[in-house]
Design goal:
By secondary structure, this protein is mainly beta. The chain contains 1 helix and 17 strands.
């Protein structure tokens, strides 16, 4: 039997859920699609975060999206792998018609887990990139992002490797909040518009735990594999019914609080 332990301070409205699976992408046209919706469209204040483990890094290929909503040639934003260099970059199309590349990670290694997060705030005129819960880059190269109604896409081919989850908030998270997602697995519900995890599978889609209906649909053979590093999530203040919720626990699970 699997035993998961976590030290959380629980409050009414909190939700606890396990992370038991990762997605595996073989790079042959497989990806996850989230249909465009008002809650994720045209965001000018947002934070995206995910854990990724690339099986290989790109060489002489296109610039594949890791997580993104749009393309720099048309509108929207995305994080992607750069051709011929082992880095992940953030790029967006400004409403002024210009494409901006505020920053990228340092060199990454294949077969290694990384927690990547990007925050963007038009009102504060700044964007920031975090690696493994720590701030590594910041930029004031910020203008309004050109809105785009394309779906949000996760691990477009030829990306190959594992991805654990994706969170998207409609606000700029603080550094401590981003660190808490990666290091403590505590997710603030305030502004949470999308929360997908390979564990939250109902047989036809990956269920959006945020409650906004931004579910993920897998295409072309996305695999769901048992994770080597299971943990418990705590989503603070997700519910308003005054109860503490436990979700997505396997049948027969015993909970001790």
């Amino acid at each position: 039997p699997l035993a998961l332990n976590a030290t959380f301070t629980l409050s009414p409205g909190d939700l606890v859920a396990p992370h038991l699976y990762d997605w595996f992408f073989d790079g042959v046209n497989d990806y996850i699609n989230v249909t465009d919706s008002p809650s994720i469209r045209g965001l000018q204040e947002f934070t995206v975060s995910y854990d990724v483990n690339f099986a290989r890094l790109p060489s002489n290929v296109i610039y594949p999206t890791v997580v993104g909503k749009g393309y720099e040639g048309i509108g929207g934003w995305r994080t992607y792998q750069i051709k011929d260099r082992p880095v992940v970059a953030f790029v967006y199309k400004g409403a002024d018609g210009n494409t901006r590349w505020p920053f990228e990670t340092g060199s990454l290694s294949a077969m290694t887990w990384y927690g990547i997060a990007v925050s963007f705030s038009l009102s504060n005129v700044r964007a920031m990139m975090y690696l493994n819960g720590n701030l590594i880059k910041s930029s004031s190269n910020v203008v309004q992002i050109a809105s785009y109604t394309r779906s949000l896409e996760i691990m477009k081919a030829p990306n190959t490797g594992l991805l654990s989850y994706v969170t998207l908030h409609s606000r700029e998270l603080s550094g401590s909040e981003i660190s808490s997602i990666y290091k403590s697995r505590v997710v603030p519900a305030s502004g949470l518009v999308l929360f997908l995890d390979a564990t939250f599978w109902d047989g036809s889609k990956y269920v959006d735990l945020s409650g906004n209906g931004n579910h993920g649909t897998p295409y072309n053979g996305v695999q769901r594999v048992a994770t080597s590093t299971p943990w418990l999530w705590l989503v603070k203040g997700l519910k308003s019914d005054g109860l503490v919720h436990f979700a997505w626990l396997p049948a027969g699970t015993r909970v001790a609080v």
